[in-house]
Amino acid sequence: MPSLTIKGVSINFPFTPYECQNDYMSKVIECLQEKVNGVLESPTGTGKTLCLLCATLAWREHFKDTISARKIAERLKGAELFPDSPVASWGNAATDGDGSTYYTDIPKIIYASRTHSQLSQVINELKNTSYRPKVCVLGSRDQMCIHPEVMRQESNHVKIQMSKAKVSSRSCVFYNNVDEKSTDKDLVNTIMDVEDLVKAGIKHRVCPYFFSRTLKSQAEIIFMPYNYLLDPKSRRAQNLDLKGAVVIFDEAHNVERICEESTSFDLTPYDLTSAIEVVNSVLTEQANDASSGEPVADNFVSGSLNSDLKLDITAIASVKKMLLDLEEVIDSYDVSSEKGLTKPGSYIYELFQKANFTFNTKTAMADALEQITSYIVGKTGIFMNTSGLQKLSEIIQLVFCGEPDEGNNEKRRQANTAQFKVHIHKDTSTYKKPKTDVWASSSSKKQGNILSYWCFSPGFSMQDLVRQGVRSIILTSGTLSPLLSFTAEMQIPFPVTLENSHVIQRDQIFVGVVDQGPDGVQLSSVYNRRFVPENMASLGNTVANFGRVVPHGLLVFFPSYPVMDKTLEFWKENGQAQRIENMKPMFVEPKGKSNFNEVIEGYYNQVNDTKSKGGSFFAVCRGKASEGLDFSDNYGRAVMITGLPFPPKMDPRVMLKMQFLDENSRKRLPGVKYLSGSEWYRQQASRAVNQAIGRVIRHKDDYGAIFLCDRRVAQKLRPLVDKAVVKGSACVSESQSSSSTSGPRSTSAQKAKALDSHAPGLKRRRPNEGGGGDGMARLSIQYDTQMQSRSKRPGTLMDALAHSDQRPGGEEEGVVGEEMPSSISTRSLQHDKHLDDRFRGGKRKIKLVQDQ
After folding, report:
1. How many CB atoms are located within 10 Å of the residue 570 CB?
2. Which of 145, 261, 377, 405 makes the best surface tag, with the fewest CB within 10 Å?
3. pLDDT of residue 25
4. Which residue intervals are annotated with compositional bias (Basic residues) in the record (predicted)?
5. Do 448 and 327 touch, CB atoms closer than 8 A?
């Protein structure tokens, strides 16, 4: 295995690295040596994960060797062990003068990604290296419990409760075997992901969930989902010690959202009602037991750790009263308006104080809720929904985090809530709150309000992470640009940055804009056009046409699930789905996790079938398929983006986020980079698109085509591309850049020599080869023969979207992404085409022609 040295650290790499991989590993080593944070962007397919693992583990081994060398040097008191290699000179490159002389000072590596499927891919990459660190992967009970009785339960909540009950009563044989198996070297030293742990647990009859926690204390690298790391509640539950640790966020384009969600909550009427019902049942039971003289322990499993409820009836009654008061306070607000009621973040204290929730009562209340939850979980044969109680306990800890200094309460409260907003709005769900008892407030007779406490700055969680004493934080992904605004939102310093180039050549990827369908109808996903029948029909015919010429796997991404569902339903009723199905059988991404693997395996098998013409996979941007799934080689020879996935602009949370950013932008403090609300809004769509199109290029030898099927893309990229409009075709124009490529770009456009060099599967057909059908006239792709300067043109989709707002005559400010469609007739389109033909000097066409 090749070995290279970067900044004094010897790295074992599976093959000779490319220049961009050397650059990436150099930046990783720099972060670790200097004990600073870094944000590193490297396109999909550049071996980012492999570079990250090898560089980090090599640095850690070197750090360990440095400590060994210092210990030897101390014992030799400066004498040289080898004449040509003074031991005292070892290690400064690794530790930068840390002065660490204990093996306990060797940093752990915390590797976080969004999902366990992504972590499994990372762990598989680790297995391909020469490094064999002690590994631990953390997962949830419902993922890792192997007890047959628990696994039969359909509800995750019931699974978790039943699992806890069996553990507390020591009636789970798998849990009871954990201590014995924790010394099994074959198990301890094997690199396993969650799936491997479950298989090993079944084979060795040991609980994977608790066995993974025994591995954590000795692990050198710990894998976990984002929320385990960013959510303070999860950190406490996992007992994570981050002091001195190296924290890595892979697929970090999701970090902003996860940071905000981990410190936000929505308290619904159902949450409060279910909590009140549980407390009321315990109160009733305790009152009955007290009146009959029966001991409480008789209601529990023998030996249960939770059989002793250390709360008297008065305390339980007080808890119930506080919950009823909180319910009444929240429902007392008149929020008939669809917009709801918004208050500053600090208002949360005033609201909770009305129900006697304060810094002084928070500890007692949280303890009481935890005790009642444990009491219910410990009971046999009865499984009540304690999710409301658990949620309230977590909310109390979130809102009343820290202890305000005496006489400085207001200042502390302002600091805690500066990044938050309180939003009270109507509950529009179908659940109706039942009347619990005579203690219940009158609010139980109506639908009720939802109390939302939303964080709008990922910096709140990032700063909390820094306060844990981490050594370095590395954020990495293929779609982070623009880095300046991304790092500004994080509110912690990132001295090390990288925007890497790609390993592929330009003739391995084609990017085209399809702004109208084969019938000349403009393709658009704006809110008032996306469900127009002629628009949906034209899009369906466009997909069917591409299905005829794209070999093997075709990926089609929609802006959202509702848009995909309604469009597919229309296609089924009007024949477009049958046309697609005849060429490439359709597979649709499900919303839930239950049958996702089954669907994706079906698609893979269809593409692998040599007797078939491939398959088509329909998914949504920001969905499971667009985030980290592997569609390499034949699984994804082309990807179609059927609309720009802007967030729902009228959603209260989106509106408040944009308002929050605009308020901060107006401060204009010197030396601070601000992100405006409209910039953030555009970036959400651009990053989601970039993630989706990143599915098509997965390694250096991969190739494929990208088709952006929305007229708004053509408008945004007008300075970047020349459009070819051909009657009766799905029109495609060339974009000279790929958003997969984020490094420095050529100042002049590199022209394609032939269509086949862009997408080898898009072979030219002779007119007599047959095929065709309605709207399947020809596919025309236009290329320039002259070199054009692009030094002042935007280089990526994101750049172009931002650039478009600076042009005179651009879309009206404030309606980016949801602008009204212009009314253009087919006749005017034909006239534009005629003018385009007249002034098309120095250009040639390469056509794919089929009989109609």
Report:
1. 18
2. 405
3. 96
4. 841-852
5. yes
